Amino acid sequence: MRNLEGKVALITGGTKGIGYGVAQALLNQGLKVIITSRSKAAANKAASELAAKTNTANAILGVEADVRYLESQQNAVKQAVEIFGSLDVVVANAGLGHFGSIEELTTQQWNDVIDTNLTGVFNSIKASVDALKKSKGYYITISSLAGTNFFAGGSAYNASKFGVTGFTQAVMLDLRKYGVKVSTIMPGSVSTYFNGNEPSDKGAWKIQIEDIGELVVDLLKMNPRTLPSKIEVRPTTPPSK
């Protein structure tokens, strides 16, 4: 997919953080982009901001969709194809985290994390697989270094991201025979609003959302014969402990 001009991308959870950074990077490369959110208002607001930043008013669309439900993802894919004509890239980014000891973690918190972070990734590819096979497209999941490195208080989040990492690698093997490329990106500390954090100058050492956007662009421009299937990304110089 060396020439990205006019390609169509769907990004789940694209209203802020990594999804927002990826959307901006893809718009700057000439792609048409659909961003999703559980909130229609948030999706429209982010789409308007992105259109203004990238001067791409006719290339960005905000859609209300909830990754926890397959039908909702199918509707987002349908809108992408009907409005923009095809679907070439899906970035499964939507995610959340509840953290705490297993003694404190509630069943509802567990379900929230697994349903969004893991089942949501399944729903995203399940809804789009036919479109991606048709376009010989690219499916990218956003996992985490927490998908290989466990930590106390992370049982739900670790489980979800370990699952995303393994799921993505298996899907890669399933779909490469159709010319569909599949990769997972596993960032460490990223300067986002995740888990109540507030991006600030104090987080300048962290990976920035535009860095992940740049990485997605690099993956899409990679020679078709080569597939970086799992990419771990870390801050270069984290603070000393």
From TrEMBL:
Organism of provenance: Winogradskyella aurantia
GO biological process, one term: monocarboxylic acid metabolic process
NCBIfam families: PRK07326.1
Protein name: Short-chain dehydrogenase
Tree of life domain: Bacteria
InterPro entries: KR_dom, NAD(P)-bd_dom_sf, Sc_DH/Rdtase_CS, SDR, SDR_fam
Domain Ketoreductase intervals: 7-191
UniProt cross-references to Gene3D superfamilies, sorted A to Z: NAD(P)-binding Rossmann-like Domain
Pfam families: adh_short
Family designation: Belongs to the short-chain dehydrogenases/reductases (SDR) family.
